[in-house]
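During the reporting period the student researcher (J.K.) took over the structure-prediction task from the postdoctoral fellow and processed the backlog of single-chain submissions. One of the processed entries is reproduced below for the supervisory committee.
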Amino acid sequence: MLSPSAEEALLSTHVTSEVSELRGANVFVITVPTPVGPENKPDLEPLLNACDAVAAVIEAGALVIIESTVYPGVTENICGPRIESRCGLSTMKDFKLAYSPERINPGDSSRGLDNVVKVISAQDDDALERVSAIYSKVVKAGVFKASSIGVAEAAKVFENVQRDVNIAAVNELARICDALAISTKEVLSAAATKWNFLGFSPGLVGGHCIGVDPYYLAAKSISAGYVPKLILSTRELNESMVEFVSDKIVNLLNLKKIAKFCRIGVLGMTFKENVNDLRNSKTIEVINNLTAHDIEVVVCDPVVDASLAGNLIQAPLVNLEELRDLDALLVMVPHDEFRQIGIVELLRKVRNDGIFVDIKGIFDSGLLPEGMTYWSL
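J.K. obtained the following structure tokens:
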């Protein structure tokens, strides 16, 4: 979400899918995704394709800024040579490289391009000043000039590594608390009374950033001769939460003796609340795990594109009004619409002896009728 001043600065924007129309530009900003492929290896193909597009139209004096999340060395050791090999120009002599990672938080209207400090870096001081002048026009929060492109690349990927590690810590706590039959939410509330306690909560870690970017730093680290134990074990633990949640739900159904011929409603299937992004959504994996147990599952998500979502799950998409007479209701992604409806209305969709799963623990479990089972991470 941009402020009015930032929007005004972008009024002259022209959107095109024709690379030839970029000819004559002297600044190129590359913001393509950087996914992982088989065995979680970095997949730079989208980035390399973007470099090829730039190479087709670049002219001497141009500046190429990479915003995609990468491991240290990609901008100068991969992107630069790729462009050079396809255009005949040379970095530093004919064009210069810069790196300025994006810091957008999907679904968060309070933190956008203009009010979050922008990390910038470039091959030399002259290029850095050009980058600073460009971003300073729209980023009112200011810019931070990293000492090198490698530092900026590492800083961006580590931002997501740090969050991944902290979520893994509370996910492990959630599994311990589940084994001990105590409330994770209550433990975290008590711990949060200490002044330096970090307020993370357990959950499924998906999406195209936190669930992906740590593999980039890990891959580079391994190639340099160091195996990053914490990063990799963090990824393993957070990935394992899909199986843990799926198994827990099936076990709850078995305890109620309704694992067969039961009907489950699932609220939300995106990778996080209030966004329509389905990429690497762990909720989708949970849904497909449940349908593999021959459980009837129906899914409701008011923010997704039904034509895209329907191809990803083995369950029908329905409207909220169609959810009724359920043996279990799973609040997997707490979109604002679900929060506004409230737990009392949601509970009317479940049999009194059924199950209410509140993955992130956002509702008051004390409002459940006697005989209904509640579970959250």
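The committee noted the following: DSSP finds twelve helices and ten strands in the chain.
J.K. will present the remaining backlog at the next meeting.
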